[in-house]
Amino acid sequence: MIDMHIHAVNPQLPGVKSFPTFLDGSPGSVAEILRAQMQESGTAAVLGMGHLNGTADDPLGVASTLAIAQRLPNLYAIGVADPTRVDTEHLQRVESQLRSGSVVALKGYLGYLYHGPDSPGYVPYLELAAKYDIPFIFHTGDNWSTVAKVKFAHPLLIDEVAVEHRQVKFVMAHFGNPWTTDAAEVMYKNENVWADLSGILVGDATYFARMTTTGSVQRTVERVRQAIEYTECFDRFLYATDWPLVSMTTYRDFVRQLFDEEHHQSVFQDNAKSLFKRCRIPADRTPP
Ligand SMILES: [Zn+2]
């Protein structure tokens, strides 16, 4: 089982509601907490988002994630593409970080930054994603920040870049939730668009238990399942949690309900394995 969207470090997004403080601990302590969650949930590999405002030596904000990965080899780093930093020197540093092979994908934080996916600031990063054959992930849907502007994060905007950059493989994080119908159409129409299923519900196990009692979880499952079925693209959905905003085990059980069992192998493992070629992901762990 591969969880392709977690946060092993604070992403440092403007105005974002607080992440658990244990992420600010030493790489060793974060690695131990993460390892325990992975073991409990049966997760073989995780892909962790970097942070904004990386230093000159770390232009994609992945050094702290890679420090944890030294202690937890099945953690892979995703670099943050900052559309406000497009000077030649920065882009050369980005390219050398990509060339090193330490970054398995790039991510753009739509809405948190006031740039849509079609912003000229993303173009050089999309070209690098194509050149190094790594996926480009865009945050889509609700923003977890009071100062974000959610219009920039609408999943329908991904259609524009999917058409203009056919050689890039895009991932819509959070399946555009709550605009899952719009995200579904973008996937159905564009074969270079994937979706991750992280963060559709966010909260601890107590929250999930309460929402299960009220029927809210089941209604969310039905709503998202309708959008998933519309796409007819079961080979382009990716299991993901958004840990530590949810418990891995609780969220695994939620995502299981979004698909018939015949699709679990693809969604929980095989689709990520074929998309993230740079990950040396351990094989043949049985999906849940
Ligand atoms: Zn996230």
Task: Compile the SSE list and pairings.
Layout: E1 2-6, H1 27-41, E2 45-49, H2 63-69, E3 75-80, H3 88-99, E4 103-108, H4 123-131, E5 136-139, H5 158-164, E6 170-173, H6 180-189, E7 193-196, H7 205-214, H8 216-231, E8 237-238, H9 248-256, H10 264-275
Parallel strand pairs: 1-2, 2-3, 3-4, 4-5, 5-6, 6-7, 7-8
Question: Mind explaining what this structure looks like?
Answer:
The protein is α/β, with parallel strands linked by helices. The protein has one domain: TIM Barrel (Alpha-Beta Barrel). It contains 10 helices and 8 strands. It has helices at 27-41, 63-69, 88-99, 123-131, 158-164, 180-189, 205-214, 216-231, 248-256, 264-275; strands at residues 2-6, 45-49, 75-80, 103-108, 136-139, 170-173, 193-196, 237-238. The mean pLDDT is 95. The site of zinc ion has 6 residues, from loops.
Tag the structure with descriptive keywords:
binds zinc ion, 37% helix, TIM Barrel, alpha/beta, single chain, 288 residues, globular
